[in-house]
């Protein structure tokens, strides 16, 4: 039973907008937190005297916490309550972000970023589940998810600008600003956000599955992070991946025998859900790789400041405006799959336009690629979020959200590792950057191919657009979206 906050006919009321803004604020905070830190890293190293390895660890610690605990966080939200998990881990996020701002040594910063990543891993799927439970399936949910996804995507793009501005005042404000924002969101969440109306499931908690899955995810993320330095202990990296695969195998055996599995095996055999998560992984791999290379090009090759770099990439943030307005209308008319396909194709075109980049390029020459990238995010990010839970039973929305965000996190980590490895192998400089730019083009093209495989099978028999929004027969019988 859904605890809808919409008015008659599914229209968004004042309270529903308030709930949506609270949940959007949290996902925006998560995205902007990551982007701001990346800009502040050089200033942090200079002030605290961190080694290159320690500085890399600051980034990796968050990735480990986020990627390692995401699936556990999603299922915990389903079992223990979406609102309870959202509020609790938002408070943890607030406390440890503040600890990062007070850090005077590298280990304190590592601890703060790891726990902040864990907090985001529990908070993000709970927030997505709260959105889907608060807005009934149909145009209201499509519109709400369009706003939610646009806000999430905007956090990544606008965080670069905000990070540049705050770092110019002092790098500690990159941590303190999220404390202020998260405190406001926490107060509003306690007042406005309500959990689903139905009783929580009485299922037990699969501790063996939780330990084996979390261990496997931590090892997988750590292995991916190690790929950035391919020549640094290759046998250890291979051993990390081997251990992760052993734990994953053990996890699948535990789940088959568990009366209350952490991840229902059947959910991973749904072709549309697999397509959506594969596309999310590839889409974020392409974007994370491109953003890193673009920052490298602007700051190290062209000598631009952090503020100039942020302003140059600000145009990508147009998705924050376009996604809530444009995407829901297109999804209602053409369906998730077609809109998602168009968005990923545009991303591939944008990255391809950047391939011949040179030292004498003007900003006007870069602008078409950056504008197309903003439009592609407007078209793709929302449908990915919508499709993640479409057709999934409401008591598994946290798990479905966890799957989506895990795919995105792994994609971002893989994209960064791949472009770094190619850039180093190609000798760095402009030549290395151009070679590495092939990675985002290939990842986006492959993502488009994955979604294209579902276009024909999802076509409606009576001329209805594929997976266009329509009233669902039930939470368990609705057709997945992509």
TrEMBL record:
Organism superkingdom: Bacteria
Protein name: MFS transporter
PANTHER family recorded: BLR6921 PROTEIN, MAJOR FACILITATOR SUPERFAMILY MULTIDRUG TRANSPORTER MFSC
Keyword Cell membrane included in the entry's annotation: yes
Record InterPro entries: MFS, MFS_dom, MFS_trans_sf
Subcellular location: Cell membrane
Organism of derivation: Actinomadura napierensis
Record-linked Pfam families: MFS_1
Low complexity bias locations: 464-482
Domain Major facilitator superfamily (MFS) profile: 19-459
Topology of this chain in the membrane: Multi-pass membrane protein
